Amino acid sequence: MNSINVAVIVKLEPDFSEGNVSYNPDGTLNRAETKNILGPHSEIAVNAAFYAKVKYGANISIGTMGPPTAESMLQHAQLISDADDLYLYSDRIFAGADTLATAEVLKSGVLKMQGKMDIVFSGHRASDGETGQTGPQTAWKLGMTFLGNAIDYEINMETRTVRAKRLVRLQGIYDVVEEIEAPLPVFIAIDPSYVPKFNTVSQRLAYEKYQREATQRAQNFKQYLKTFNAAQIEADPKLIGISGSPTIVYKVERIPKGKATRQAEIIDGTDQEQIRKVVAKMRQSLSTMVIK
Amino acid sequence: MEKYDVAIIGGGSAGLAALKQLSNLGKQAILFEAGSKVGSKNISGGILYSKKPKKGKTYNVEDIYENFLTDAPFERKITKYILHATSKDKVFSIDLTEAHNYEANFGCSVLMNKLNQWFLQQVTETAQKHGGGIVPGVHVRDIRWEGERTIVQTDELEEVEVKAIIAADGVNSEVAYMTGARQKFSPSQLYQGVKVVIKLPEEIMNERFSIGQDDGAAHLFAGDVTLNHIGGGFLYTNRDTLSVGAVYHLDSLLDAPVEPYDLVNTLLKNPMISEFIKDEVPVRGEIDKNMAKEEQMRIRFAVTKMIKTWTELRDAYYSKSQKERLVKEGKYGSEDEIGSQLSSIREQMSSKYGIKFETDYVEAEYSAKLVPDGKRCRMEKPYFKNILFVGDAAGRGVFVGPRIEGLNVGIDDAARAANAVARSLDKNNFSDDYLGQYYSQSVEESPYTHDLKSIDKDYLKIFLDAAKDVPKDIISAKYGMVVKMMSSKTLRNFAVGVANILGYEKLLPVIETTETYVKVPTEIAERLGKSIQSSYTPSIPPIAQRVAKLKYNDDNISHIKVLKPTSEFMKKMITLCPTGCYFMEKDGVMIQHEGCVECGTCSEETDWKHPRGEKGINYQYG
Ligand SMILES: Cc1cc2nc3c(=O)[nH]c(=O)nc-3n(C[C@H](O)[C@H](O)[C@H](O)COP(=O)(O)OP(=O)(O)OC[C@H]3O[C@@H](n4cnc5c(N)ncnc54)[C@H](O)[C@@H]3O)c2cc1C
Ligand code: SF4
User: Fold this and answer.
1) CB of A166 within 8 A of CB of A145?
2) Is A187:A138 a contact under the CB 8 Å cutoff?
3) Looking at the predicted complex, does its ipTM rise above 0.90?
4) Same domain (yes/no): B312, B406
5) pLDDT tens, position by position, B435-488
6) Min CA distance, A292 vs chain B (Å)?
7) CA of B599 to the centre of ligand 2 (A)
8) Ligand 2: which of B581, B589, B619 to mutate, judged by most atoms within 8 Å of the beta carbon?
9) Number of domains in chain B
10) Which of B453, B481, B513 is the last residue of a domain?
C-alpha cells in the first residue's frame, strides 16, 4: 500500500510564560517551581507531521529523550497530532548529554520506531538550549538528506519524493524562498514561521476527524507509549550521556549590558499631554526613516 | 470541484441545530463557521427556553439533543425571575417568575462558548458518518448559481458545489445581503445588546441570591438605569459567573446617543447590582522601583503566579463539585484542608508580597451584539432560491415583555429547515415551491411566529396581576384606559382582540416608549421603592482596558469600510460603537477596526462584512 511513516523528535522545555515561570533571586530559572512543557519549536514540528496525516494519511511516531515526567508532554504532542505511537527514551546514563550525544540517542530511538521512517521532523531549535544543532546532527547520524528552515512541503506519493520550500535568510539583506525536491527519506527541520495550510473542504473535514480522534487517544495516551532505556534502543554507551559528549557547558554568563547609544525618555501615563509627546517622538523618528 | 449535499453557513446555536437535525435524518451536510473555533463568535444574554406552547409544536433544544438535560453544560435552571424598578438608590421589585414559567418547560442560563462547543461535540460524529461535518475558521464570501449548480465561495478554501443552503449566519447575515434575499435590518428593527461576564464563586452566589445548588435567578431592571432609553438591563446567574447586560432599542440610542458601556456601567453602579456582584479581590502592592530589574521582574512573576493559584483554589473551594473532586483525586486530605491551604496562601500573599484584599468585582469579558426584533423585522418568506434562513439571520427574535428569545427560536427554525431540506433531498427537488415554500409554511405554523404576530392575553394578565400592588394613578396617567379594560375578563378579550386587529405595527409605538421603560418604573421606585446602600464603589475598567482584555486574531485588512464618512449616522457611531472603533478626523469619521467585536451597530451605512476566517474577536465566554 502507498503509505507513509513520519517521525517527530521533540523536546521538553520550561514554560517561560508569565504566571508559570519562576526565577531564583539570582535571576536564574527556578527549575523546581517551573513546569515543563512541549517546547514551542517542537510544537511546530508536531504540527508539520500532522499535516502529513491529514493530507497523506501518514502514520505518526513521536519520540523524545527525557525524564519520566516527559510523558505528559508526549500526551500533549499526541493531542495536537493524533500520533499513532509515542516513544520516551529515558535512562539515567543519558544525563549530561550535549547535542551530539542527544542526537545519538534520538537516532537509535528513531531506528527502534515502528516501521521505516520516510520523514523525520524536528523543531528549528530549543528555547532553553538555543543551539539548533540536535536536528542536523540526528539527520547526519541517520544518514538522511537534511532540509532546514522548511516553511512548506508536499509529498508525491507516486514518485516518493518531497518538494519543500526553505526560507533562506541572507543576513540583513532579504529572505529568499528556495524550492527543492528530494527523494524520501528526508529529515526536515521546520521553520518557526511554518503554518500548515488546508485548502479543501475534504482536507478540513479530515483535519477535524483526526483532531477528534486525537482527543480520544490522548486520554489513554499510555496505550500508545513505549519507554525505552539505553540498552533497549541499543545505543552505543560510548556515544551517549556525558561520556559521549565532546562538549560541556562550562559556564553561563550574563551578556554584559551594551552601552546605550540612544537616549531613552520614559513617558509614564495616559493623559493627553503625555500621549502627544509620544506621538511627536514617533513622528520625529518616522520622518528620518526611508521607506522602500 | 468538491460536492456536498447541503451547506450550513454559520455555527451558532441555530446552525448547529440544523446540522444535528440533518445528521439525525441521515443527510450529508457541511457547516462553515467563520470563527477559529465553534462558539468563539457567539454571544447571548442568555436564557435558553424550552417552550411548551398551548397550541402547535416547537422543536426544543431537548428534542434536538436528547441528552441535553442530563449532559449539557448549561449554567443554572432559572427559578426566580424578578423585575426591579429603579430610581437612584431606590428599588421596587416585582416577582415575575410566573411570566418566566409561562408556556415554558424550563429556562436555563447559558454561556454560548461552552454551550455551542457541547452542541458541536454532539453532532460531529453523526455528521461525519454521513460524509459531512464542521469546517471552522472559514468565512463564506459569495454564493452563485450556474444553471442548476449552486456554488459556495469562501475566503479560505476551494469552491464547493451544494444542492441547498441553510443560512444561519446571524443578525448581520451577509448571505442575506449578498444574495439580495432581504435588505439590511434598519435601526428601528434592532436592539443593541452589551454584556459583561463577572466572576463570582459558586457557593457565594448560592447564598447571595438565595438559590439552591443548581437553581438560578434572573433579575431585570427598568427605570433610571436605562438613562432614558427604551429597553432595560438584566443580571443572570451562571454557575460561577454572572451575566450583566443592557439591551436597548437602536433607534432610541440613535435619537440620543450614549456610550453603550455607560449603559452597562450605570447598571453596575446601581447599589443593588453593586451588592450582587461584589467579591474579594487581591490588589498588587507597589514594587519598589529601586530594586534591581531582575528582582522586580521576579517579584512580578511570583505575584502573578500566586494570585492565579489563590484564585483557582478559591473557586474550587467555593464549588461543591470541584471541592469533592480535589479530595477524591487525593490532592487534599479533606475539604477543611483546602480551606486552611487557602488561608495560608492568602496570609503569604499579604505578608510576603504586600498584596491587599479589597471589596470589588471581577470582570471577565465584555461583549456586544445586535438583536433583531422579530415583531418588526422577521422575514415573511425566509428563503431565497434554495437558501433557507434561520434564527437571527431571518430576523426572528421574540421580544415580548422582558423575555428575550432568540436561541430557542433559532433552534426551532433550524429543525424546520433541516426537515424541509431532507425532504427535498429525498425527491431531488430544490425548487421554490418544493423547498422554500414548504419551509416558509412550516415556519408560519410555528408558535413563535404566532408570538411575533399577536398578543397573548393570558401572558399579559400575568403582568397585570404582578403589578397589582402598584397604585393605579402611576400607571393610569398613561395607560388608564388600557388598565381598565384589562382588569375585566370580557373587556380584556375584547381589547386584545382589537389590538390584534390593529397589529403590532400600530401598537408598538404606543407600548414601547420611554413611559414604559423609564418614566413609570422610575416613579414606581421613587414612591414605593426601598433604599439600598452599597458598601463600596465598583472600580469599573475604562473601555480601553476592557477591549485590551479581549482576545482577537488581528486582521491587517479592515472588514468594515466606511461609505459615508460625514453622515450624521456615522458621526453617532463615534459614541455608539461599543468598543470605540470610530473617531473623527479631518475628512470625517474613520474606523480603527482592530477592536471591533462584530456587533453590527455600524452596519447600516458601512460596507460591512465579518472578518475572514479565524480573524477578529474570539470570545471566551459568550
Ligand atoms: C445581550 C443579548 C442578550 C440576549 N439574551 C437572550 C436570551 O436571554 N435568550 C435568548 O433566547 N436569546 C437571547 N439573545 C438572542 C440570542 O443570543 C440570539 O438570537 C442567538 O444567539 C442567535 O443565534 P444564531 O445561531 O442565529 O446566530 P449567531 O449566534 O450570531 O451565529 C451566527 C454564526 O455565523 C457565523 N458567520 C457569520 N457570517 C458567516 C460567514 N459569512 N461565513 C461563515 N460563518 C459566518 C458567525 O461567526 C456566528 O458564529 C440575546 C442576545 C444578546 C446580544
Ligand atoms: S466597528 Fe461596528 S461592528 Fe465593530 S464593534 Fe464597532 S459598531 Fe460594532
Assistant:
1) no
2) yes
3) no
4) no
5) 999 999 999 999 999 999 988 888 888 888 887 778 777 776 666 666 666 667
6) 20
7) 5
8) B581
9) 4
10) B453
